[in-house]
Amino acid sequence: MKRERDPTPEEFEKLLDWLDSDRDVAAQKYETIRHRLIKIFVSRGCIDAETLADEVMNRVAVRIDKIVETYQGDPARCFQGFADNVYLEDLRVRRQLEELDPSGHLPDGRDEDDDEQREYEDKCLTQCMGQLTAPDGELFRRYFREEKRAKIDGRKDLALELGITVNALRIKAHRIRQHLRPCMEACLDNAR
Fold first, then answer.
1. Distance (Å, rounded) from C-alpha 173 to C-alpha 141?
2. Model-wide pTM > 0.85
3. DSSP line for 66-107
4. Which tens digit of pLDDT belongs to each residue from 72-123?
5. Cα separation values, 151 from 39, 48, 142, 148, Å
6. 61 φ/ψ sector (left φ>0, alpha ψ -120 to 50, else beta)
């Protein structure tokens, strides 16, 4: 499935404004919609429901200008429409993988070029992470540390520890990622 780019801070702000003019109410609606999407993806048997829900949120945010102009209904229904498309794309990818290996296991033969590329990406990430402040680097590491349910629980714990909401934590992580992106792109361009 093709992943959507992360929304710009302006797009994210417009998304929150579209949900509600009161920032706290908008954040609560955002979280409610996101949790509902996660439940939908889980009920449909998706492996990484949280990632798919984030993909839906990103797609809506990136297209927020057009949505605000053309969509007249309840925002939750708009997200549902995007969720249906994301689910179908994810299902298509899972079926293609099953066709490659019906046992559900991916082929073990890895390409040396892929290993070299991953190693270079790791070096770039380490280099770029070194440019962050210590608190931002630690927050970013902890935010992306776990998988599946442990990731959700870890993010809740981190938000509690920092004394902020999970949504505020997500925004902080998004801003750090936006800060890292130019460094990563420059570093990876040097590898080509």
1. 10
2. no
3. HHHHH--S-HHHHHHHHHHHHHHHHHHHHHHHHHH-TTSPPP
4. 888 888 898 899 988 888 888 777 766 654 444 444 444 555 677 778 787 8
5. 16, 11, 9, 5
6. alpha
